Amino acid sequence: MIRVNNDVYLNGQWLPVGEAKVSVEDRSCMFGDAVYEVLRYYDGKPFAPKLHVERMRHSLDAVSIPLPEEFERLPQISDELVRRNAMPHCKAYWQISRGVAPREHEAPAGLKPTVLVMTYEVPPLNVDAPAPRKRAILTPDLRWLRCDIKAVTLLANVIAKTHALRAGAQEAILHRDGVVTEGSATTVFIVRGGVLMTHPLSPLILGGITRATLLELARKHNIPAQERPFTVDQLLTADEVFISGTTTHVGAVTEIDRRTVGEGDVGPVTARLNRLLIEHILATVTQG
Ligand SMILES: Cc1ncc(COP(=O)(O)O)c(C=O)c1O
After folding, report:
1. How much distance in Å is there from the Cα of 211 to the middle of ligand 1?
2. I need a surface site. Which of 50, 209, 226, 243 has the fewest CB within 10 A?
């Protein structure tokens, strides 16, 4: 939960969260006409802010929302908010909508985008913690065909995650035409015969920043890795399955639809990549 005395940044102003108001005619409200980013702060320092800026630029370009005036300064605004809220361990949420206009599908020209930045506290990263074990369910991917855009229209993701939680699981693994795409809010990796596999970059998945970091670490440390589609059957018979994301880091999926994955424990490749990721994040944020 956001603390009531927290500030947020809204369109150039620092405001307590309870006083920050967006018009009911904001296009995010009626059309979900907005894109967002979530990045993680470790002891007051963000991981990979430039990659988040670039992904947000991709999302904005893809939906033709013009870059707001403060776009390049988003990392500094976000850093300042983390300081103001005295929240060194947090996730920062950036959202840019197309702006405010009477409800018509087509947006009038010249709208000023609405820019919102918020922070949410999270526990500090425990360097020695093993990858947590997660239960998952399988569910059809009901999303649109531009999942590479980080759009706030997340209804299909919300439904999938809710089904997972109701089934006593923590994540929903999505599949389309028999192929595993990703999780409701994470990237999905499998390990078969020592080879790491994840869906290739395409409009069917979000280009996860943790995904890119893990693939880079795998290459650097000689863990064979392939970016190629894999089936539901390959998922269910994998030696290891794990999910990744900015706030999840690496989570070992040990059960899918109540069936045990591999040995039912955190596998060796998962454990290694979890360790490498945490070390890499901490080293990167410390160097600035
Ligand atoms: C659908 C989806 N896939 C993957 C991810 C992981 O992306 P990242 O590693 O950039 O957090 C997210 C994160 O929110 C997501 O929502």
Report:
1. 8
2. 50
